[in-house]
Specification:
By secondary structure, this protein is mainly beta. The protein contains 1 helix and 4 strands, in the order βββαβ.
Length: 75
């Protein structure tokens, strides 16, 4: 049926804000999880409990032990 009017299809798309997460270690251990995440995303980060020290101390059994996450954190 011709009504004389053009039909307009309108689609509204709402996007969530995206945040960038940067994860790094002060002892050079690779920790995955860096990237861009939409608001309300859940992200799980895992750090090793301990890693061998470099050099002579590592040879003698010395280890760096994970203590805590620092920076802006929310658990």
């Amino acid at each position: 049926m011709n009504t004389g009017y053009d039909t307009i299809n309108l689609q509204i798309v709402e996007t969530l804000p995206v945040y960038t997460l940067t994860v790094s270690s002060n002892i050079g251990v690779q920790i995955g999880g860096s990237g861009a995440y939409e608001e309300w995303s859940n992200v799980t980060l895992t750090a090793p409990q301990s890693v061998p020290l470099e050099g002579v101390l590592g040879i003698l059994g010395g280890r760096d032990v994970f203590q805590e996450w620092t920076g802006c954190t929310n658990t």
